[in-house]
Amino acid sequence: MGLEKFTQEQIDKMSMIELAIHILSEQKKEMDFRDLFDMVAQYKNFTEQQKEDLLARFYTDLNVDGRFTTLGNNLWGLKRWYPVDQTSEKSLAEQRRRDAEELDEDDEFYDEEEDYYDDELDDLDLDLGDDEAMQELYDDLDDYA
């Protein structure tokens, strides 16, 4: 049943979660959390203050309600759309695809902290088969933590 068939009074009586299920069912695809919340807020005629107050509650309700699933990157869908064994695989595949799209070919991923630790480890010149050397390595790493 489409949302246009509901009166405003019926929509006002629905929980945000019930409304989210109807919205996702009509859209027939996963949605970004913020877009989903904005649609719920629009149907419920929330004020800006109500939106601020209810945003965290809506997120918690989505997480707790067993009818929803997150697909990574804050995308949400209805769990019934996905076979159990594909949900995590699809989530990982979608996440990797989006991550790859976000990084341009010219962009170079650089983790300063990881690079720093690699340089420090290279400077130690340790024989990792030696217990004393391993202890020195652990002690040096503890200094950086």
Topology:
Layout: H1 8-13, H2 16-27, E1 31-32, H3 33-44, H4 48-64, E2 68-70, E3 75-78, H5 84-102, H6 112-124, H7 131-144
Antiparallel strand pairs: 1-3, 2-3
Helix pairs in contact: 2-3, 3-4
The end-to-end span amounts to 56 Å
Radius of gyration: 24 Å
Oligomer: single chain
Structural class: mainly alpha
The CATH architecture classification of the largest domain is Orthogonal Bundle
In short:
With 145 residues, the protein is mainly alpha-helical. Helix content is 64%, strand content 6%.
Give a verbal description of the structure:
- With 145 residues, the protein is mainly alpha-helical.
- It has two domains: 3-102, Orthogonal Bundle (Arc Repressor Mutant, subunit A), CATH 1.10.10; 112-144, no CATH class.
- 64% of the residues lie in helices and 6% in strands.
- The chain has seven helices and three strands; from the N terminus they run ααβααββααα.
- The chain has a three-stranded antiparallel β-sheet with strand order 1-3-2.
- Helix 2 crosses helix 3 (33-44) and helix 3 crosses helix 4.
Summary tags:
145 residues, mainly alpha, Arc Repressor Mutant, subunit A, 2 domains, 7 helices
